[in-house]
Automatic annotation (TrEMBL):
InterPro entries cross-referenced by the UniProt entry: AAA+_ATPase, AB_hydrolase_fold, ABC_transporter-like_ATP-bd, ABC_transporter-like_CS, Galactose-bd-like_sf, P-loop_NTPase, Xaa-Pro-like_dom, Xaa-Pro_dipept_C
SMART domains in UniProt: AAA (SM00382), PepX_C (SM00939)
GO molecular function annotations of the record: ATP binding; ATP hydrolysis activity; dipeptidyl-peptidase activity
Keyword terms: ATP-binding, Hydrolase, Membrane, Nucleotide-binding, Signal, Transmembrane, Transmembrane helix, Transport
Secretion signal span: 1-43
Organism lineage: Bacteria, Bacillati, Actinomycetota, Actinomycetes, Geodermatophilales
Protein name according to UniProt: ABC-2 type transport system ATP-binding protein
Bilayer-spanning residue ranges: 629-650
Amino acid sequence: MRPLRGPARPRPRSGARATLAALLTPLLSGVLLVAAPAPPAAAAEDVGTEEALVSSGAGADAVELDTTVYVPASASAEDPAPAVVLAHGFGGSKDSVADDARDLAGRGYVVLTYSARGFGASTGQIGLNDPRFEIADLSTLLDRLAERDDVLLDGDGDPRVGVAGGSYGGALALLGAAYDDRVDAISPQITWNSLTTALFPSQVGADDAGTLAATPAGRDAGVFKRVWAGLFFSIGGAPTGGLLPGLGGDGPPENGDAGGGTPTLPPVDPASVDPAAVEQLLTCGRFRADICAAYQTAAATGTLTPEIAAALDRSSPATVLDRIDVPTLLVQGTRDSLFGLDQADANARGIAATGAPVKVVWFSGGHDAQASERTTERLREQVAGWFDWHLRDSDDPIRGTDPGTGFEFPEPTGVSSGLNVQGGSQTVTAAGYPGLAGGAPAERTPVALAGGVQPVVTPAGGSPSALTTYPGLGAVTAALGGTAIEIPGQAAAFDSRPLDDAVEVVGAATVELAVASPSGTATLFAKLYDVGPDGGMTLPSGLVAPLALTGLSADPTAPTTVPVTLPGIVHRFEAGHTMRVVVSSTDQAFALPAESAVYSVALAGGDDAALAVPQVEAQAEGAGGTSRWWVLLAVLAALGLLGWGVAVLWGRRRRRRVSAVEPDGEDVPLRFTGVTKAYKDGFVAVRDLSFEVRRGQVLGLLGPNGAGKTTSLRMLMGLIRPTEGRISIFGHAAGPGAPVLSRLGSFVEGTGLQPHLSGRDNLRLYWAATGRPAEDAHMDEAIEVAGLGAAIDRPVRRYSQGMRQRVAIAQAMLGLPDLLVLDEPTNGLDPPQIHAMREVLRSYAATGRTVIVSSHLLSEIEQTCSHVVVMAKGQKIAHGTVEEIVGVGGAVLVGLADDADTDRAIAVLEGLPGVSAGRTDEGLVAELDGTSRARALQALVAEGIEVDQFTPRRRLEDAFLALVGES
């Protein structure tokens, strides 16, 4: 391994350097990536993979890193390609970035992914990107890339390489560029500048940097971000195999990467166990001892000690920004209570000071909220264009155009219908990030505030606490209306006059307060609300500015002036709305003082008090000349009116045709009548399908692959329209958007769960999205169906497949729908869970509701369902009760007067030619192959075995195979 980089030194840099373009899956992040089209340099299917364990470190700190290299067919010794290292988010593994790696390889890059030490199948302990460990591991991996003949080299042992990652992986990209001068370009996303200020923030003061979101970096004290730190420690606290000496296990945990489920340790020889290692494992999980000690001290005291600061500073790019002199694309989210816009702002200032090209992109999303598919696809293309330009040679046709060093952010969007909408789909661009590299500083507009001196009470122990946003669950807050909860008596409020014109805030506003405290200290939280004309309050992005105040006056008549920087946001305050600065004494996400106190809070400056809000002169992308805009608007309006007229006429015609409600609809929850689905290429997926299902039935939909089962379910759910025929639900025609679909609950084609949310919060978010009252969800009943116990409150990314399946089925049962449609509900469940699911479905139907189950497990259909529809080649070939379908065949159900004779009866039957017999849930079943039923019965009677029942029987599987074969 090459030594770590020492003091920064200039060196010539090729014009064909690049930064990496991959948006990863970071810690608890809502940033989900959408694959973008790959250029023609290499097709994704032409990408090969190479798996390897790579040794890194020495002595007690030696680890094995689990790696995968993705190699495009276009890369060879004759035509080497630039390389990319993808780092995953906290709690993930190399599998978390596999899709992104394949996409990049499809663009012609050699891509190396790996699980960081302590995660996935890699051994070792988590050091939070300690330069001695995780960053040294990166250098080891660069050595491996330099040895490949298909990787482009800038010199001996120096690969042309970019590094990127989100959150945990983003910090690794920054630190890697600082400590190893072979890194040529980086693209860190939603990551930190200083772990110290991120986890112990105090936004006291006003930074004169001139940038949009600059926040003073208090070094001595801050307010501990208790919940976020606890999430970090919980994710890293679960032990894995091969973690510590003396605990055994060199391989990966049985259930995959460290981010999912409860890892299983391999067998251990008790004599080899190191007691100290066991204590470390139980106390600290996968964290290194110094990181564990820092967290435990912080969690117990809520204070920043020199030891904690030293551990966090070691993993902070803030300490080495002057060493980063490579092209850097910084991507940060506007909905992020973990690493706010101030962290990217500080990184941008520090890197730009070295003369390196820096581009800043803000997007609507972050650790608290998932970005839209459109946004993630755009970001993927943004960063792809960035490293295509910087990593590729000037004569490379894929290089494209220079992405420049501008600034982009989501179009400011205000409050609409009570929802906390943050940023529209449109992007706003500016020539550069204000205040960087000698550019003009950010412009700030004063907005007058008013409000007198107000007492603010801090309750003992900090309870009850104000609720703004729950870390990592900002999407839930938004779905519920974006409303925060302030506790009466614990907050002071200062208002502007109703705005005459809309004000777009882009960045961090500042204000000066006057504060007094009997003890000379105070912990406060400042936030900027948008107050509508009806008095409704919305907190943009749910962000707050914690304030750790010391040296305050104890005299309320002579308070101390305190400059405050509010959180960085992108938000439009509409005309007629009011800006309200609220200063509270509590927030549930932070550590709070144990002692009660009363503070005095007012605005500094008296009648001249004002809020300074940052604004940016920029242009929405695609905005052209005014005349062209109005012409386009007129054309769109005309097309809209025409479309409306056509829709009205078509709607009337369609209502006349299908508005009739079938009189027996409530007794027949589902009816297919002559349903056919044909595609344009002539393929007929379903042909003339007719059947009906009545209340209280559990119907099994059976058929081989390609029988048309999934197409039928998709038509039933209104996802696609039938070519001919009618599907009715409770007598009403089913189709896309039909109101009657609200009576249907479904689980088809995957769970669709958000991995960073808990099972409970997934259920809450799903129900909130329906817009129906919370009391109608019957949440407790659904959670009881899930049967996950305490695991219902753990992140879904830590669930096994079976656990995810159970939550998804509970989600389908929210609201207790009258018609429940389940596709392969027992996938991933073990036998006891399958048995429990069988009972749940039967009892659910017994309440008068109806259940449709599609499954390939014929034995489960037989034991669960009352009725069956068998399909083959798109057509129905049988329909009836399970008993009717099974019919009479080569099997009999034998009922004995005395169960003690069962073993003797089995022996007698199996002594006959071609007969096999065994116990089942229904009793003794004999398969007769070549022996008549009469002969078998005679044999039992001849042996003195009293037979009460001898019923012809065959399994559903036999009937199914016979029917499908006949078709």
